[in-house]
Amino acid sequence: MGLDISNKVINKDSISCDETFLITLGLSASPDIQSNPTDIVLILDRSRSMTGEPLEEVKIGANTFIDIIEESTDGVKDGIIGNGSHIGIVSFSTTATQDSPLTTSVSDLKDAVNSLVAGGNTNHSDAFQKAIELFNPLSTNDKVIVMFTDGETTVGPDPSIDAALARSLGITIYCIGLIGSTGIDIDALNDWATDPDNTHVSIAPQPSDLEELFKDLATNISNPGATDIVIDEVLNPDFNIVNISTPNIGTATLINDTTLKWTIDELGKTSNEGASLVFEVKHVGTTSGVKKVNESITYTDTEGNVANFDDPEIYVDCEEDIVVDPCPEPQEIEFEGCQDYLAYDLGDYVIDNVGRILELSLTIKNVCPNKKVAVAILLNEIDRYGVEHKKAIKIISIPAHTNSRCKDIKLTNIKLVLPEEDNNMCGTKKFAVRALINYIDNNPIC
């Protein structure tokens, strides 16, 4: 059946500067469908949220899937699925229906797909049950379910029980999800699908992506397993690879800070098989914003399988340091040649630090865009009886930032001068410090 699914996922949506996250690469492959007859049941979501373009794109994708499987079974496009393989159709909304039994007739299958009408709720449990009933338990054919859905379960029992039953019967489950108007539970798809999840679950952001996704899955299913696999992963320069876990199959090698190579001698030649590689990545850039994780990723094997890895993005928030009281500018003094004595006048200075100096820093969390912030630092001295006496106050105005999201802002070098009124420079002093922080700009346009 060839390379079934190729996938790439990251475990975080956003990070701070210098933070790490995990990337997982996944592949699954199966034997040649001509020498390894396979029964496939397509489960297609026709709930209310599929009305219009989504259902039309699913029909196109399913028909393309049927065409590719049909031709790959015997090498002839004659409208008949050959060499002992079959396809069946189950569709579902509030309940599920067996729209076509396992058959070799392409026309019957396409008629079943093209007659689907959207409406009703979402019952994944009944869909799995109806699909399991289509398989002949006495058949020695490989058994595959391809579940497509665009929403979460709204009626019926917990479908994870039915999916687990299917897997226990030796049925391989692939899940295709469309991010639809009602939302989709990716964790549920991972739970239903055959492990490893990242090789058996694919997500389509838009309905227009479905045809290509169905096409890739059918093309890879129809090829033989994969040999001499080489994956070259190159990260965006904003990220470095800091750790590579040992893959369950093959060997992963770090080429440089941003590049690794994963090689697999053989995958899915005798049975369905999944391979997974996890590696840790660290942000090393200096700017905030949405960053593409990859610069490039390439896949090759002897059989010419096609791997389409996702191109993930991650939001990076680099905390901004604002120096409140900058240090005085230095004056440069230079000795020339053999000169061994130099007199230099540093100029006039005004005494501005009489007594002790307290330097503070603080971080303001989640400052919204286009909002100015005022910070008041209140400092009281605590006498030996525990009574507070006002000593100093400092007001700081923080300009608004223009990032697309709320961000943390760090203030550094906040200096408070503490005059020594009793000339006791070596005595112990105790202070109470409070910070009051408020937005001072309700109208960002102003």
Short structural description:
By secondary structure, the protein is α/β, with parallel strands linked by helices.
Using brief descriptors, characterize the structure shown.
446 residues; alpha/beta; Rossmann fold; Immunoglobulin-like; 2 domains; six-stranded mixed sheet; elongated
Write structural notes for this entry.
This protein is α/β, with parallel strands linked by helices and 446 residues long. It has two domains: 2-315, 3-Layer(aba) Sandwich (Rossmann fold); 320-327 and 339-439, Immunoglobulin-like. The chain is built from seven helices and 23 strands. It has helices at 53-74, 106-114, 124-134, 159-168, 186-192, 197-200, 210-222, and strands at residues 2-10, 14-16, 20-30, 38-45, 86-92, 96-103, 142-149, 171-178, 201-204, 226-235, 239-244, 251-256, 259-267, 273-283, 289-292, 294-300, 313-317, 320-323, 356-367, 373-382, 388-398, 407-418, 431-439. It has a six-stranded mixed sheet, with helices on both faces. Strands 1-3-14-11 form a four-stranded antiparallel sheet. Strands 12-13-10-16 form a four-stranded antiparallel sheet, with no helix packed on it. Helix 1 (53-74) packs antiparallel against helix 2 (106-114), helix 1 (53-74) runs parallel beside helix 7 (210-222) and helix 3 packs parallel to helix 4.
List the helices and strands and how they pair.
Blueprint: E1 2-10, E2 14-16, E3 20-30, E4 38-45, H1 53-74, E5 86-92, E6 96-103, H2 106-114, H3 124-134, E7 142-149, H4 159-168, E8 171-178, H5 186-192, H6 197-200, E9 201-204, H7 210-222, E10 226-235, E11 239-244, E12 251-256, E13 259-267, E14 273-283, E15 289-292, E16 294-300, E17 313-317, E18 320-323, E19 356-367, E20 373-382, E21 388-398, E22 407-418, E23 431-439
Parallel strand pairs: 2-17, 4-5, 4-7, 7-8, 8-9, 18-22
Antiparallel strand pairs: 1-3, 3-14, 5-6, 10-13, 10-16, 11-14, 12-13, 15-17, 19-22, 20-21, 20-23
Helix pairs in contact: 1-2, 1-7, 3-4
